[in-house]
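Aim 2, interim progress. The first record below pairs a target sequence with its structure tokens.
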Amino acid sequence: MAEIATAVTHTITPTTDELKSLRVGMKTALDTGHGTEIERKPVAASP
């Protein structure tokens, strides 16, 4: 069980590069107005 738990922890824990990539992706999504449900819904609802 300990080996499985360790493997899961390592899989879930992102690396520094992954965090940077995620941050850039989120910033791009916010800048373009795409990428999240909250931002897409008003666009889809507008006539």
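The second target in this work package is listed in the same format:
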Amino acid sequence: MQPLQRYLYHTRAVYGSSTVEHPPPHSHATVVLVSGGLESTALLSYWTHWSHATEMIPLFVNYGQQNALKEQESARAVCQHLKLPSPEILNMKTLAGLYSGMQRGEERHNRASLRNLMLLSLGASAAVEIRATHVALALSKEHEPRSEDATVSFLRQAESLLHALEPPISLLTPLVQLTTSQIVQLGEQANAPWELTCYTALQGLANNHDYAAYTDRSTQWQHLDRPLLWQGSETAALQAGGLPSTLSPPWKVILLSDGSVTRHLQLMTGLPVSVECLEMRRLGNHETLLSECSGNGYNSDGNGIYFNNNLPPAISLLEGPLLQRQVLLHLPEPLNRAFVYAASWWNADTVEEYLKDKDQPIWVSLSRERTEMYREIIDLEYGHSVELEEKFGAKGPFWGRSYLFWHKGRPLTLIYEVFSSELEEFLGAPFMHK
């Protein structure tokens, strides 16, 4: 038996310093919260494949989430494929209005607060009603850092609370120690019907069951090579001695300015700036899912969260689904070359509200709509990149920076920029000689 199989046959969830043994889900009715997504599909598939005696009662909760109908249909299709009962539908979508009404001004967002607590409570209520003995929630290892109601301490206390009922109900979180990549492997072992899930990125995996291809795909955006020659936050850079002492004032202004790069280029050169859009596409689920990384340190946000394909850690602040845009900013004759590379990430469902013309600079698009923005610089970088040397037609090393645009109290887009060393034609050499 493979390690992941042993893990689910002898389900054990480690909650902090306590270890709670869960009985294998044989011969007892289990209410399984389903979403039509990756985790619940993998769990249903695996239990169906290896535990034929399990009586599973799928439960779908519509709490007003944005893609509720799509998720509901996917959950129904998955259950039908696995020859499970069609999910019981609990319509709580009025909660969306409640949450929205209680949030104030710029605090508004689309997420239901304490979502897992809500789902767990509703699942337990359903279990009591139909005399089921277990409630299963498909939380993974990566949920914990992002949700206060998915932490080990919360799950430990929730387990104790359910055990206090009469008759007691057992909480099953069999995926809680597994990363997303391990969960995909788990689903592969059980021939999970990825093509029926609400994540289209998994459908290619369903067609050829090639897990290696799934994990090796790359978003192919260009960042400076690791290790960097220098890196620092905006706060550190603004302090005395924060930036390299010989960095010239004009370069400091460019790197730390909260103004438009496009406008700066136009003012420096007196030439119009054109945009070459290299890419503007919706990222697949396989590219944005949290997963184990190669260990180079760049993938981590410092809290143990790792992102596929070296996506910037700050991308976790954006609501998905995500769209990735890559551009080069060109100056015309007599220069006739690119001077800035930029990659940006947006919510794919709302990006057209802000970027109505993909061939226009972001600054132009936002200015036309008179969109009020606050720019938060995250960090500055100095390093090499062979790929960007080719795009710029210039030798490195290069300066780069990443920053967030905030709009109405929420992060709108994450932008990563790298400046050609040829800008010294207008700014002077980046470093002054002592």
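The mean pLDDT is 76. This observation will shape the mutagenesis plan for the next reporting period.
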